[in-house]
Amino acid sequence: MSSIHLQHAHSLSPEQARNALSDLADSLARKLGVESRWDGDNLHFQRSGVDGTIKLLPGQVEIMAKLGMFFTPMKGMVEQEIRRVLDEKFG
C-alpha cells in the first residue's frame, strides 16, 4: 500500500476553495472513477483501491490518500493530476 500526502496554500474564500475542490473531485472521478462526498470542510473520495480525504483549512488544502496494490504503480500519475488541478484552481 502506498500513500499520498500533499499540502497546498491558497488565498481563496471558503466558497471559492470549496468549488475548486469540487472540480478536483470531478477530475479524479473522470480519471480514476472515485466517488466523493462532503463532510463539513472535508471532501472524502473513494473507490476500490483508493481512499482519501481533502481537508479545506484556512489558507491551505491538505490531501491524504491511501492507494491499494493496483494503484500503487500509478501513484506518480495520481499525484501529478492532483498537483495539476491544485495549481490550476488554487494558483
Secondary-structure map:
Blueprint: E1 2-9, H1 14-32, E2 35-39, E3 42-47, E4 50-57, E5 60-67, H2 75-90
Antiparallel strand pairs: 1-5, 2-3, 3-4, 4-5
What does this entry look like structurally?
There is one protein chain. With 91 residues, the protein is of the alpha+beta class. It has one domain (2-90): 2-Layer Sandwich (TATA-Binding Protein). It is 38% helix and 38% strand. It contains 2 helices and 5 strands. The chain has helices at residues 14-32, 75-90; strands spanning 2-9, 35-39, 42-47, 50-57, 60-67. The chain has a 5-stranded antiparallel beta sheet, with helices on one face. It is globular. The chain starts with a strand and ends with a helix.
Task: Compose a concise summary of this entry.
This protein is an alpha+beta fold and 91 residues long.
Q: What value does the Rg take, in angstroms?
A: 12 Å
Largest sheet: 5 strands, antiparallel
* Structure class: alpha+beta
- Integer count of domains: 1
What is the H/E string?
A: EHEEEEH
CATH homologous superfamily - what is it? Answer: Alpha-D-phosphohexomutase, C-terminal domain
Number of strands: 5
Q: Portion of residues in helices?
A: 25-40%
Which oligomerization state do the chains in this entry correspond to?
single chain
User: How do the strands line up in the largest sheet?
Assistant: 1-5-4-3-2
Based on the structure given, which CATH architecture is correct? Answer: 2-Layer Sandwich
CATH topology group: TATA-Binding Protein
Overall mean confidence score, pLDDT = 90
Low-confidence runs:
none
CATH top level assignment: Alpha Beta
Q: How many DSSP H or I helices? A: 2
Question: Can you tell me the overall shape?
Answer: globular
User: Ends: how far apart?
Assistant: 30 Å
Please report which band the strand proportion falls in: under 5%, 5-15%, 15-25%, 25-35%, 35-45% or over 45%: 35-45%
